[in-house]
Every structure is written in C-alpha cells, then in structure tokens.
Amino acid sequence: MPDRRTAVEALRRLTVDVPDWPEAGVTFKDVTPVLADHAAFSAVITALAAAGRDDHGTVVVDKVVGMEARGFILAAPVALALGVGFVPIRKAGKLPRETHAVAYSLEYGEATLEVHRDAIAPGERVLLVDDVLATGGTVAATRELVEACGGTAVGVAVLMELGFLDPRSVTGDLPVESLLTL
C-alpha cells in the first residue's frame, strides 16, 4: 500500500504549472498527469482517504463530498476506499431536484454551489475533498451546504494547499489535511 510520502513525491513530480490560466496572474495547478499515472493516482487516493479514518484506521465519516469539478475525480474513489457514499457539490443549475445553494468568492471570480437537500442526512459526518485549497471560499461554501442539510463537516482533504493565499483564515476550525503546501 502506498504511503503519504509516495503521494507527495508523485504530486511534486507530475503536477504541471500553467501560468495565466484561466486568466492573467493565475497559475493553474494541472493535476491531470497525476490522474493519468495509476501508481500516483492510487497513492493520492489512499493518502486522501486517511483523513476519513481515526488513528486506529476506523472510518469516522458517513459521506464524502467532492466539489465540482476536479473534486469529483478525487472524492468518488476516496468514498469507495472508505466504504461510504459520495455526494457531488455542483455549480448552480446542474442538479435536477430541490437544492440548497451558497454563493461565494473564489480566487478569480464568484460562483454558486448547490447540493440536493436530501443528499446528506441530519447528523451525518462528512469529509470534504478537492484538488487545490486556494482562498478557502469553496471549502467554506461547501461546509455551509453540508450544515444546511443537517450534516457535520469533520474535515477537508486536498492534494495541495496554496498557503500564500492564507485559506485557513477562511476555513476556520475545520481540520485540513493537505498532502502538499505551496
């Protein structure tokens, strides 16, 4: 089974910086080469799933949410690894039934996220999974959606955190497990 160090090494080796995308001044962290490498992808999923277990390896979450869109790619296999359900957090207008919605600011604009009102049952413990923690706005909005359903966000697991943007000032007391901090 791969360890966290293997996952971090894979992230360092395979992540590609794309300058000025999607707009000038933003350096996009392209993790698709990590996903295309089976060993790297397996290592990061195992490492992210560790955030949903206690020190004895017992699963401590009931659901894993992934934020659109790259969060889906990571959160679904994390949920499978933990043996729990996966819930997509979608952009506005993408879910067909009644939703909770939250508008928020992100690194280069504004957005609205939604979740089906019945996706998370009251009292369920939820792990939030995404690729990059930048300003913290997406995590804060997702936590608000989880709580609107009656669930409890118990932690965040991300591939990388952009520490220079100080996202933890926005995520508050929510524990964050980042495989790599830049």
TrEMBL record:
Its EC number(s): 2.4.2.7
MF (Gene Ontology): adenine phosphoribosyltransferase activity
Highest classification ranks of the organism: Bacteria, Bacillati, Actinomycetota, Actinomycetes, Propionibacteriales
Pathway participation: Purine metabolism; AMP biosynthesis via salvage pathway; AMP from adenine: step 1/1
Family label: Belongs to the purine/pyrimidine phosphoribosyltransferase family.
A Pfam family per the record: Pribosyltran
UniProtKB keywords: Cytoplasm, Glycosyltransferase, Membrane, Purine salvage, Transferase, Transmembrane, Transmembrane helix
Protein name (Swiss-Prot/TrEMBL): Adenine phosphoribosyltransferase
Location in the cell: Cytoplasm
Organism: Nocardioides zeicaulis
Endpoints of the signal sequence: none
PANTHER family hit by this protein: ADENINE PHOSPHORIBOSYLTRANSFERASE (PTHR32315)
